[in-house]
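Customer escalation, tier 2.

The customer says the design service returned an amino acid string that "doesn't look like it belongs to this structure." They asked us to rerun it and document both sides in this ticket. The original structure tokens are below, unchanged.
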């Protein structure tokens, strides 16, 4: 059975958080004047590299002369790794899943209303997030399942068992020789607004949230005092990175860490008696490979055989 996407569920939750944040602004600090935030639509920053630049050379016995070489090798190893499966037991049943399985975690940070932080809101929202988002078990990112036969998105239209990443998607990358027959490849994809799975630089590297705006638009209590949802709901993916460790003798990815960063700005929002309000928050979504035995067991009752 296809696993229900936790990120899809979280999209709906994000909109609830935004509404709660706006409402809490009235309940908690309505009597205190708060300066209006400077133009929420203009908060996107320049897309700059946060990792070291690529240096041509031979790493782990592999020669890399360009960014194209690094990305091509990454894609080759990604595709090979996702052909590898292993036997597991899940709640007493024999299963065949990806050999490399990872965990996931998601946090909401930097909650601002009208450009200001509020301690009460900051204390409330993380607890709500923890109660509604629980980590799943997935294959190498981007992935939506632990079973390769079900690793798709958009009702099977997007196949996630192979990578569609290209050098044009990459803002920066580098390679490190670990001296033990493995190398680390670190990639920072270019920024993207409202990233979609497999459709842009972020969506070809991370488990992106997809079309959040359509969920926001469906909330009847939320409207905008001016402009459209596209003008007032900005979802900016920027600054995230991923690092994988590859055994160069086999081309297998043996471990990895991905950190996706998303900044969401809402402006000119109307919620009930609130008019023309702004809010913003950051989403940090992480994947670590391989998941620990404890994580597999506690989250899904999975044991490696």
């Amino acid at each position: 059975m296809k696993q229900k996407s936790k990120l899809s569920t979280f999209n709906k939750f994000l909109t609830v958080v935004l509404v709660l944040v706006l409402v809490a602004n009235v309940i908690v600090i309505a009597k205190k004047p708060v300066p209006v935030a400077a133009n929420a639509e203009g908060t996107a920053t320049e897309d700059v590299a946060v990792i070291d630049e690529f240096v041509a050379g031979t790493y782990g016995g592999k020669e890399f002369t360009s960014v194209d070489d690094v990305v091509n090798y990454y894609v080759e190893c990604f595709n090979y790794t996702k052909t590898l499966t292993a036997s597991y037991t899940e709640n007493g049943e024999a299963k065949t899943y990806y050999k490399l399985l990872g965990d996931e975690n998601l946090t909401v940070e930097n909650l601002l209303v009208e450009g200001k932080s509020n301690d009460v809101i900051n204390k409330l929202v993380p607890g709500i997030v923890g109660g509604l988002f629980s980590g799943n078990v997935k294959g190498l990112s981007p992935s939506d399942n632990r079973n390769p036969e079900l690793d798709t998105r958009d009702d099977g239209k997007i196949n996630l068992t192979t990578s569609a990443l290209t050098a044009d998607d990459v803002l920066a990358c580098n390679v490190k020789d670990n001296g033990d027959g493995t190398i680390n490849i670190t990639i920072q994809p270019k920024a993207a607004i409202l990233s979609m799975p497999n459709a842009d630089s972020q969506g070809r590297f991370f488990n992106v949230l997809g079309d959040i705006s359509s969920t926001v638009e469906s909330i009847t209590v939320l409207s905008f005092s001016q402009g459209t949802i596209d003008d007032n709901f900005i979802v900016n993916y920027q600054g995230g990175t991923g690092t994988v460790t590859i055994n160069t003798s086999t081309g297998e990815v043996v471990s990895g860490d991905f950190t996706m960063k998303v900044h969401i700005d809402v402006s000119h929002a109307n919620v009930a008696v609130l008019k023309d309000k702004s809010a913003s928050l950051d989403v940090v979504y992480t994947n670590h490979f391989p998941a620990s035995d404890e994580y597999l067991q506690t989250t899904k009752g999975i044991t490696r055989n």
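Tier 2 assessment: The sequence is consistent with the input. The mean pLDDT is 85. The chain is about 25% helix and 35% strand. Sent an explanation to the customer and offered a walkthrough call.
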